[in-house]
Amino acid sequence: MVLGLSQTKIKNRLIKSTTKRISENNAKEKARQIIDYAKNSYPAVSANSIQTQKVQYYATQLLHLIETKKQISNQMIEKAQQLPEFEILKSLPGIGAISAALFIGEIGDLSRFANHKKVNAFIGIDIRRYQSGKYAGQDRINKRGNPKGRKILYLIIRNMIRQQKAAPNHIVDYYYKLKKQPTPKLDKVATVACMNKLLKCIYSMFRNNTKYDYSHAVSMDQ
């Protein structure tokens, strides 16, 4: 299939299909490499075989699903933008439009919770302690809440850590503080602790109708 196309056609397809900016010369070189690989590959099936048609069909279905997902995401963002907490959430470094929309979709109206601990319990990251007499077991989070909400929070924390250089974030500071203690916390334990802290921060911002301020957040931690 590749060998049936000219280097120019492959080059033009590369330029058109990639989301990153690629120069004409770079695309031309990539096209040459693709043709070289195709020449050295073993042709298992012909271009018009049933196997090739199946691959083309599934590739088309995949592209359709990707486009559908994109449309649904845009619809979610449009609805979430109508709510005041959308911009509050987006003011936090590491939370984009889709993350804010997903959070709102899973957590719902924060005003129905009396305090941030109620939100924690709803999601299922409140601490459950095992204790009997002199025995004290290891603390574990209560996973009886909203698993999708926990997953969204987990991904938000990981995204904050990845984007830590973009803007100061007291949640990221707290994560590294937990990791650098004399007895460093495991990554999962530190992440869950950050999820707890993030919920407390979001709830406070929502109650006070304020956007994220790093200096204020740090002062509240002291």
UniProtKB/TrEMBL annotation:
Recorded GO MF terms: DNA binding; transposase activity
Xref: InterPro entries: Transpos_IS110, Transposase_20
Domain of life according to the entry: Bacteria
Coiled coil feature spans: none
Domain Transposase IS116/IS110/IS902 C-terminal: 87-166
One of the GO BP terms on file: DNA transposition
Name of the protein this chain belongs to: Transposase IS116/IS110/IS902 C-terminal domain-containing protein
Native organism: Ornithinibacillus halotolerans
